[in-house]
Write a structure and sequence with these properties.
Distance between the termini: 72 Å
InterPro entries: FKBP4/5/8-like, TPR-like_helical_dom_sf, TPR_rpt
EC number: 5.2.1.8
GO molecular function, one term: peptidyl-prolyl cis-trans isomerase activity
CATH class of the largest domain: Mainly Alpha
Helix content: 55-70%
Number of domains: 2
Keywords: Chaperone, Isomerase, Rotamase, TPR repeat
Largest sheet: none
Strand content: under 5%
CATH architecture of the largest domain: Alpha Horseshoe
Number of helices: 7
Number of strands: 0
CATH superfamily of the largest domain: Tetratricopeptide repeat domain
Structural class: mainly alpha
Protein name: peptidylprolyl isomerase
CATH topology of the largest domain: Serine Threonine Protein Phosphatase 5, Tetratricopeptide repeat
């Protein structure tokens, strides 16, 4: 039963017609060409040249030294946002560092993953400081508790939770 000239129900279509129509439809679905922008790099004017998610990056997550360089770069961008009192963007960059650190920890050996602990701790504490500046008291406490999970004797985290 045809519903109109362009839309047919599957019951009136041959298998060959359905396959051809699906194939032609798939050919027009927005295929990216070589050199096209895939939209995985941030366009926030910060100079951040790393994809938002480490699985989109062209980097081996087991290469802890490379992840450390990326993490330090992103943390510095977050620090620039912090200094300009753009708390939301600072949090985004610090959170992005944590994604890279977690991705690398999951892929790397335990001994190598330990190299990432200081940058992770710093970013968690910085997120807590941003949340304090935003008067998000519970968010600040949560960040400091997360920092204490990384380093139970961290005085900065202990101070910010009080």
């Amino acid at each position: 039963m045809a519903t109109n000239e362009t839309n047919y129900t599957v019951t009136n279509c041959t298998k060959e017609f359905v396959m051809k129509s699906n194939k032609s439809h798939a050919n027009q679905c927005g295929e990216l060409k070589e050199g096209d922008d895939w939209g995985i790099f941030p366009k926030d004017g910060s100079g951040d040249s790393h994809p938002d998610f480490p699985e989109d990056a062209d980097v081996d997550l087991k290469d802890v030294d490379k992840i450390l360089l990326i993490s330090e770069d992103l943390k510095n961008i977050g620090n620039t946002f912090f200094k300009s009192q753009n708390w939301e963007m600072a949090i985004k960059k610090y959170t992005k560092v944590l994604r890279y650190v977690e991705g690398s920890r999951a892929a790397a050996e335990d001994a190598d993953g330990a190299k990432l602990q200081p940058v992770a701790l710093s970013c968690v504490l910085n997120i807590g400081a941003c949340k304090l500046k935003m008067s998000d008291w519970q968010g600040a406490v949560d960040s400091c508790l997360e920092a204490l999970e990384i380093d139970p004797s961290n005085t900065k985290a202990l101070y910010q939770t009080e």
